[in-house]
Amino acid sequence: MALFPQDVLRGSLNSPVMIEVKNGETYNGVLMSCDFRMNIVLKDAVCTSRDAEHFNRIKQCTIRGNMIRNIRVPDDTVSKAVQLVAAEQASGRGRPGNFRGGRGRGRGGSGRGRGDSGFPSKPGSK
């Protein structure tokens, strides 16, 4: 069973986390939500400056996923994430192992692909 970073984040919902962003600031707060791009919403966060001299209390903040350098979660989060993924797979939700999604059928598919278009290839031939 594969465990992805988003699974670990979902396992740590409503628990305290520490997030370090690329400019050196750190945010300590309660993880309220996260999405597939790792955009994160924290509640009751404390923002610490790079030099650790300035502290700001923020009631709610959103951190963009591509700005995150490091996330620290509680120790029991990984076991929660494993249980969540196992429960999703048992109920038929989540990511099945043989899923081959996509937008189209590829080349060929329904007999309308290359060389089998249903039309004669040369004028006068059948």
From TrEMBL:
Keywords: mRNA processing, mRNA splicing, Nucleus, Ribonucleoprotein, RNA-binding, Spliceosome. This is U6 snRNA-associated Sm-like protein LSm4. LSm subunits form a heteromer with a doughnut shape. Pfam families: LSM. Residues 4-77 form the Sm domain. Binds specifically to the 3'-terminal U-tract of U6 snRNA. Coiled coil: none annotated. Residues 87-126 are annotated as: Disordered.
